[in-house]
Write a structure and sequence with these properties.
Strand content: 5-15%
Strand order of the largest sheet: 2-1-3-4-5
Helix content: 40-55%
Order of helices and strands: HHHHHHHEHEHEHEEHH
Radius of gyration: 20 Å
Largest sheet: 5 strands, parallel
Distance between the termini: 42 Å
């Protein structure tokens, strides 16, 4: 993704200790990589849901004299894409769909380098059992992954409920032989997820995380984070890219499991015998 506008923006932000508000601005800029260089500080603040002074402080935190200097730099590293005025031709529902399409494009650019996904696949396949964590907004992503993963992986353990039992279930997975945990982390990020990942790493697990950006609060507690942006154009976030990335990770994991195909064929045979699905 380093040759794309979004990738060059990611590179600009890396190495800086950003506050939660600044990470929100950075995430917004990556999502709008095609036209962010032509947004005023007020427009960027509105898109990110922060104050205009926060945008100025963000620019200074990156080492620029102010937002105008940052914007001049952006015009060099992230040239404009589609004209901003064209968005006005679509209603809010269409804009939400188009934004998700753009998120998927960014994901496709990221996957041009398959090494992180392939590494994740090896880590997940080798972990017996494999705990899969996702709370609140991310619970459906975790549940969907766990459902399909159980078809090819011998021991998948879904962790989709918080509370004091969560650490106990992580401990139980470690005692049973787990070496890695897969986490789906989507905004708004529950404090329990951050604490659970910190606990999991302390217990010796390698943390593989799917989050909306490399600046998410869970990043500091992840050994391998693969970003997939969420849509924010509707009242509730949309997560097409994280869901698709989950399926990609399933594919990569299955490629590392020598008996994955045999397990799928066995399931199909039993499902047919039971009349499980309507033809």
């Amino acid at each position: 993704m380093s040759d794309s506008p979004a990738g060059r923006l990611q590179a600009l932000f890396e190495g800086h200790r950003l506050t939660p508000t600044q990470r929100r601005i950075a995430h917004c800029m990556v999502r709008r990589a095609g036209d962010v260089a032509f947004l005023s500080s007020v427009e960027l603040a509105e898109l990110a849901g922060v104050s205009q002074p926060s945008v100025t402080r963000f620019a200074v935190a990156l080492g620029f004299d102010g937002y105008p200097a940052l914007r001049r730099h952006l015009r060099e590293v992230a040239p404009a894409g589609e004209a901003a005025g064209e968005a006005g031709e679509h209603n809010e529902y269409q804009q939400a769909v188009l934004a998700e399409i753009e998120n998927l494009r960014h994901l496709a650019e990221l996957l041009a380098d398959p090494a992180p996904v392939e590494r994740a696949g090896r880590l997940l396949a080798a972990s017996r059992p494999l705990p899969v964590l996702g709370l609140r907004a991310a619970s459906s992503q975790a549940r969907g992954f766990a459902y399909f993963a159980a078809k090819v992986h011998p021991d998948v353990r879904l962790l989709d409920e918080g509370g004091s039992m969560l650490a106990d279930r992580i401990d139980a997975s470690v005692r049973a032989g787990a070496t890695a945990v897969l986490c789906f982390a989507l905004p708004r990020h529950p404090r329990e997820v951050v604490e659970a990942l910190e606990y999991a790493r302390g217990a010796g697990l390698t943390v593989v995380t799917v989050a909306e950006s490399a600046f998410a609060p869970v990043a500091a507690h992840s050994d391998l984070l693969i970003p997939a942006a969420v849509g924010t154009g509707l009242a509730f976030d949309t997560a097409c890219a994280p869901m698709l990335l989950g399926r990609v990770l399933l594919e990569a994991m299955a490629d590392e499991l020598p008996d994955a195909q045999a397990r799928l064929e066995e399931f199909d045979t039993k499902a047919a015998a039971r009349g499980l699905f309507v033809e």
